Amino acid sequence: MVTVQKCSRVYLESYTSIMSFGLDKKKLEEFFNKEIEEADRMTIELDSDDIIDEAFDSDVCLLVVGDPLGATTHASLVFNARKAGVDVEIVHNASIISAVGCCGLQLYRFGEIVSIVFWEENWHPDSYYFKIAENKKRGLHTLCLLDIKTKEQSIKNMMKGRKEFLPPRYMTCSDAAKQLLEIVDQMSDENMEPVYTKSTEVVALARVGWDDQKIVFCSLEALCDLDMGPPLHSLIIPGELHPMELDFLKSFYHNVF
Amino acid sequence: MVTVQKCSRVYLESYTSIMSFGLDKKKLEEFFNKEIEEADRMTIELDSDDIIDEAFDSDVCLLVVGDPLGATTHASLVFNARKAGVDVEIVHNASIISAVGCCGLQLYRFGEIVSIVFWEENWHPDSYYFKIAENKKRGLHTLCLLDIKTKEQSIKNMMKGRKEFLPPRYMTCSDAAKQLLEIVDQMSDENMEPVYTKSTEVVALARVGWDDQKIVFCSLEALCDLDMGPPLHSLIIPGELHPMELDFLKSFYHNVF
Fold first, then answer.
1. The whole model's pTM is what?
2. Where is S-adenosyl-L-methionine annotated to bind (chains A, B) (predicted)?
3. Residue after which a domain boundary falls, among A32, A58, A84
4. How far is C-alpha A106 from the chain's CA centre?
5. Which of A95, A208, A244 sits opposite B98 (nearest CB)?
6. CB within 8 Å: A79 and B106
7. A170-187: pLDDT as tens digits
């Protein structure tokens, strides 16, 4: 709080995550008694030199949801600022990467994190499947971060140079479950042994750390039809389960049929 | 803060981590305007039922350094409390698991976390070597958490049933580097190809998030003789480095020769 208040300019980064319900720029302005400017994708990725320039003469602060260095963009901003001779202070915060411990899975039993991205009409990336497979082979859990699309332009608007954006999209656990099963369906055609099936039990998490947090332990098939409510969602594909982990997960059992 | 203040009893867990310099029980008591009791290993592991019993009639709070569910002990306490019918609220916090991003390595490029434990006279566990090797094979970074020994009894005191404890021990980056190289030395005898050598460059981190945080990027050999200062220390064995990660790490270059 003291760090924010001593700054002459405060930005709120608004495209790598979202704030919990009821918390917005206005509430933060009241809390800090400071004016706050929203910094969207364009500001952070394209105009970051302007922020660094400002920081030469005065203290500038960028508020981020989650750990401030979780996204490559932020690490890059810190690096460029220091390279330009600007001192950077980092105030760490809770992150989904460790907060997922709330489902009872042990953090030291997680392997590589994967990102599941929205499929476009002619682009169905599935490289995360192979990372899940590698983790599974070693008995490790996989945390899947689900895609966020903000300030995306339609091809039409992009071509016309219009700065109009599509509504934000947040991938749900149900979207992710459907994609994961589609990948496996295609593999069965090729006679490969999939590392998960529709009956594999996974952990769906929504709004971790918020008042209305929801955690459900159910099969991938059941998850396809499960409404976990508003964003953000995350998904865990468990590896080998320790009896204590399984007991904990069972408390989130949800029989949707 | 509000959560802590509404509790009739506040414990401070004191054996899975330590608080930063200048912050102690007394400072926290002043901050919260509350009396705080220290909960050591015995209290958490052996007397946890007493804490759960207390929580039936009144709000009890356990303060933890780092994410509250990073340690198995804490997850187990939450599970047992809920099983006994006690509501548990979790307030997430920054954790070394995500805070390591401050060295410039990307969090989604980390593999399984390992713990490096103190070797005893006749017990030299080295299973973490194989986990490092698996991560390396996939180009992933390995975060090594270093051992903490608090409230350990000497065999003499244990046999005499004396509740006297050895001074706390915290593994340094230098200790860890020496153990890692000893494992590799023994392997060379067996004509195995080690996944790191004494010239492998690693990241040493001390007191992450504290005012006197120190990060050094140097070879394992150099690290053996490097004093990183007071605890807690952590170590990262990088996998494949993205050019941006390498540039960031180079800003912590330390030529000790």
1. 0.92
2. 67, 70, 95-96, 146, 208, 233
3. A84
4. 19
5. A95
6. no
7. 999 999 999 999 999 988
